[in-house]
Amino acid sequence: MNDPEARLSDLLSLAEGQHGYAGLAQLGLHLDAPSVQRWLQLGLVELARPDVRDVGPAGGVLRVRAGARHDFPGLYATWVGLESTPAWRRSPTATAVVSHRSAGLVYRVLTAPVAAYEFTAPTAQAATRSSSWPGAAAPASTEHPQPAQGGDAVGSPSGEVVVRNALLLECEVVLVEGMWVTSPARTVADLYVDCGVGVEVLGRICQNLLSAGWVAGRDLPGELSAAFARRGLHDDGSGWLAEALEAAA
């Protein structure tokens, strides 16, 4: 389809349901496509994420220059660029989900910039998504991403992306800020197992999750027990939470 008006209609339809963002892969376009170049020249859109689908895990993403920005612009643009499926059609158990430190940012229980945007996706999807986009100092690692200059001022200074392989249950995923995000309990378990976050810090995170109403106090112990079991741990959620909250006091 080469009709410029139809292309523009597709762009606006996608952007309307995705906080003003549209992935180039979703549109079936590349950055050098005449339509995209024309939109950029006219100032209708801006490039929210570089178009590096052949190099990195996320393709280029455009933002329509109208209205308010997303609260997490870099993270959201990266999440949109990970797949060609529109955001509103993505299944919580069959798509890339915001996780680990990035989930902590979305819940606002972590405030420091992260080294990389972190996601969890089914193994078949995640297998080809563990490299960085140009601007990062070194190739991304699924365990130790390297920060570099460039990227977003808030979120990931390097713009790197890490996608871990895991099958998530529907109860482990919630919709926050228009993105699928690991549940509070699953996020705590992931930070504990994969990121080496200490019990005292995790206790403060749990306090913040509870005080903000992300999870109820009566539910968190059981959800932590289930999340720990899914991560191969045998910790009792109630006992662990009491210890963590005491350490944070």
Q: Segments where pLDDT lies below 50 for 5+ residues?
A: 124-154
Discrete helix count:
10
**Strand segment count:** 8
> What is the general shape?
elongated
Kindly report how far apart the N and C termini lie: 61 Å
Radius of gyration equals 19 Å
- Helix-strand sequence: HEHHEEHEHEHEEEHHHH
**What fraction strand?**
5-15%
Helix content: 25-40%
Strand order of the largest sheet: 1-3-2
Task: Look at the helices and sheets and give the structural class.
Answer: alpha+beta
**Main sheet attributes: strand count, strand direction, barrel closure:** 3 strands, antiparallel
Average residue pLDDT: 84
Task: Tell me what you see in this structure.
Residues 130-141 have a biased composition (Low complexity). Residues 130-156 are annotated as: Disordered. This protein is an alpha+beta fold and 249 residues long. Among the domains are: 4-85, no CATH class; 183-249, no CATH class. Helix content is 37%, strand content 14%. It has ten helices and eight strands. Strands 1-3-2 form a three-stranded antiparallel sheet. Strands 4-5-6 form a three-stranded mixed sheet. The chain has a two-stranded antiparallel sheet with strand order 7-8. The termini are far apart. Mean pLDDT is 84; it is low at 124-154.
